[in-house]
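User: Structure tokens for this complex, please. No commentary.
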Amino acid sequence: MEKLFTLNIVTENNIGLLNHVTIVFTRRHLNIRSITASESKIKDIYTYTIVVKTTEELIGKVAKQLEKLIGVYKVFVYEDHELIHQELALYKLPISAIKSGINIEEIVREHSARILDIETEYILIEKTGHKEDTQKLLKALQPFGVLQFIRSGRVAMAKPMKSLDEHLLEKENAYTYSNT
Amino acid sequence: MATTTQTTKEKPAQQKNKIMNGADSVIQSLITEGVETVFGYPGGAIMPIYDSLYQSGSKLRHILTRHEQGATHSAQGFAKVSGKPGVVFATSGPGATNLVTGLSNAMIDSTPMVCITGQVASHLLGFDAFQETDIVGISMPVTKWNYQVTKAEEIPEAIAKAFYIATSGRPGPVLIDITKDAQLGAVENYEYKKATKVPSYFPYPKLDMEKLREAANLINNAKKPLVLAGQGITISGAEEELKTFANRTGIPVAATLFGLTAFPSRHPLSVGMLGMHGNYAPNIKTNEADLIIAIGMRFDDRVTGDTSRYAINAKVIHIDIDASEIDKNIKADVAVISDAKKALIKLNELVQKNNFEEWLAEFRKLEDIETKAVIDLDIHPKGNEIKMAEVVHEVSEQTNGEAIAVSDVGQNQMMTARYYKFVNPKSIVTSGGLGTMGFGLPAAIGAKLGSPDRQVVVFIGDGGFQMTIQELATAWHYKIPVKIVLLNNSCLGMVRQWQQLFFDERYACTIMTNPDFIKISEGFGLEAIKVTERKDLKKAISKMLDSEGPYLLEVSVEKIDNVFPMVPSGASVSEMMLKA
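Assistant:
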């Protein structure tokens, strides 16, 4: 059965590594739903957050292939219930939306969004949340003529209390660098 | 033109005092790394490296293959027999793209190879400059690691990393792409330090003794166990440890294609080759075994057939250095992620002798069936036409199984695997995973250079021969005494076999009108003879083996000859057919 999986891929900061990572998905004919790259708390170590829908069996194989790449330290695979995750969405509405008499402020408050910017021509709203939440706001704003909508990839953190340093140390201790 | 002459004359004097440039550091790094042989082909973007090579004297031997693909296959032949990484030079653009087949081949067959490509100057990257191609992008899926160097001072470290990564853990190919300005840039304070560690690269898993004890427990309680020996045995140098394991436990040992030299074919516990065209007994018995002990192998689909009907009565112990191979194709009941040698040394302390005489006798019974149904007819055929198998068998007899047997791909390859009776480790050179036609000839050239004291015989079909035939010039140029056995059936035999068996004899594009291979070979300077009748075969083989230089023996073999037994594509190993 296919499920949604979120991968946290801990990597070096190298040119081309993201390409290397995505090739592993391409080879398995997997479509990446969202992707985010970000610095971690450790200098020069990055985390890619990738969301895919696939089977548990396949994601396990993909994770092992990813972890084999030089430049990848560690791959974590999570299902939604193991995560706190967020996405950020931006909505641009024409200023005429306000003039039309609707209460933008009320909608914003209802959806726990915020107004980021108001210019003479447009109004920009920001909302952070799960995809369903940002989607819901989009639907609510749709009647007023949304000029532009954009949503970031997912960023996610696992619930278990174990630091990245501990994970990396654990991995390091399971291997040696020479065969003698 | 006087000025030109003058400039040329002045050059050596100037260069005596010149400071080291990136190209010099490439050559110096390779020498320090212990490289003695490089296979390659020059071109615009790699000229500074060739110039440094020229000036470095004779410490590094360069073999000019006649095509970059040939260089990669030669490097692989070299690596397979010597255990050292093969090294390749190529220029940018087409030179680099010609490496791709060889890189893929080395990747899937775990062959250590270091390719160094020239690249256009860094300020031209991305501008579609002459002979610019994104080889780093292209080669990403087919290299263990690749890297583009744009600064001269980065070169020694990149090369050190390349050798460490190519040769450690599960070996594989790496590619270093060096821009022309990096080759020409100054390297101050040159220092080459061999790499002993690369962050985020974890080559050697520590042995999990708990898992090993679980494995030993299964082994000691098994009634019908079978060892599947793969290339991991050869790569880790665990041939002796495997012998000890077999002798200590009495468990029969079957081999994958690359595992053929992991365990001597004449050992009383050897039960032959696994897979689509392997031996009858180990395939059939795979589904009767109650324990499969897979060591340094990856359950390739040519070995397993239909995975849902594979090892149906068995628990599976999988020992492999690459964690991503565990459960990839066949689910392991006990996985030991480890170098094969390390695991076997410890495992040998935990296992005990059991009586598997009856179990072994069942293999022998099936062997007899295969001998009568296939082998006897293959090596002592009744018809007039010469069969591929009898040629390989005769070479095996005359070399006492001690030669390095290289093969191309197709029927010639399976016949070599089936009928060359290997006795020594590191003796099989073939394109296993990728099935690269054209691999044989250049690989044989590399194998001879990697192991100059051993006889190197290559079995090639007429199809594959024509894919890299230009490498005859390399053999001739450097007087590399490879013995080429051309099994000429005037068709693409393996594809034709499938067409006969599974496509109702519709021979689409597999029947060939061939050139005169003797004339061609003689044109390349080789001694060449052709055998068309059985009575001349033995003598011709013996003459070839006694010859001094590179030599071609063309044998006209039966056209409608098939490799049997066979596990048809999609069938279970226990459905292996002895005949059509």
